[in-house]
Amino acid sequence: MGVEIKVEHLTKSFGKQLIWGDVTLTIPAGEICVMLGPSGTGKSVFLKTLIGLLKPDRGSVIIEGTDIATCPERELYEIRKLFGVLFQDGAMFGSMNLYDNIAFPLREHTKKSESEVRDVVMEKLDLVGLLGTEDKLPGEISGGMRKRAGLARALVLDPEIVLFDEPDSGLDPVRTSFLNQLIVDLNAQIDATFLIVTHDINTARTVPDNIGLLYHKHLAMFGPREMLLSSEEPVVRQFLNAQKVGPIGMSEEKDADELAAESDQDLPALPPIPMQLEPSNGIPRRSQREPGAWCEENGITPPPGSFDQNMSMTTGA
Q1: CA angle, 132 as apex, 100 and 115 as ends, to 5°?
Q2: pLDDT tens digit sequence for 110-156
Q3: pLDDT tens digits, residue range 196-227?
Q4: Residue 94: its pLDDT value, please?
Q5: Which of 41, 99, 227, 306 fits 134 for a cystine, CB–CB 3.0-4.6 Å?
Q6: Are strands 218-224 and 210-215 parallel, antiparallel or unpaired?
């Protein structure tokens, strides 16, 4: 089972440049979360701070009672064993075949025999649908296969937290859909805590249990998927529904004149909330809730057509 990540008042700068400040959220154990934000808002920096590769200026990241922002290096090393990371490009060693790439963390961090290593590697290759490709080099396979190989490597130490840094970058919509299904299936199988940084709106609308949005150096909102997909908060509404009307401009923020010019425009209706992607075997994940449950509990009327199974199927959700 995954572990909870509690982030409190986290602030990070590079020199005089504030990346984001006072970020507070709790990533629930075993759930799938997505972190969104316009380009340059520090989403990858946030991932690196969670795993202790970057130190925040202020704030804390509490994992199993340890604040990794201030703990000694030896404790941080132990906490990092809870993590698996899928990097944007897979980060495979080009001179190693897939088998050796995936075996690398086991050989570096465990005392397993080669027969035990082989059992684990073949299990993870099977898990991501890559059995039979173990002798290929990273340069001999497609981008989607490299992503899955990188995911297999991220899973070999049986992590309780898995971080995905833009797993859909460089993938076409079909491969992204396959990867999304794989992520949901894996969460159902291993019950780890998943955090996905992505720009893909369809992924954000259909995969996670919770969504966060970084914008203009702060966390605009974080909470259950249905909360954000029904939100009238301008930046959340604009980003999650890919609309032009709102505070986000081509570069960063729109100026006062642009916002004033938009003030008389009628906002487009919120699109229906799609069904959440389910595991391939049809058995709901432990953290998965009934469609519309959050809206009902909070007295929110979802947009017309929400949670329509037929609508979700035709839109590729």
Answers
A1: 50
A2: 899 999 999 999 999 998 989 999 999 999 998 888 888 999 999 99
A3: 999 889 999 999 999 999 998 999 999 999 99
A4: 86
A5: 99
A6: antiparallel
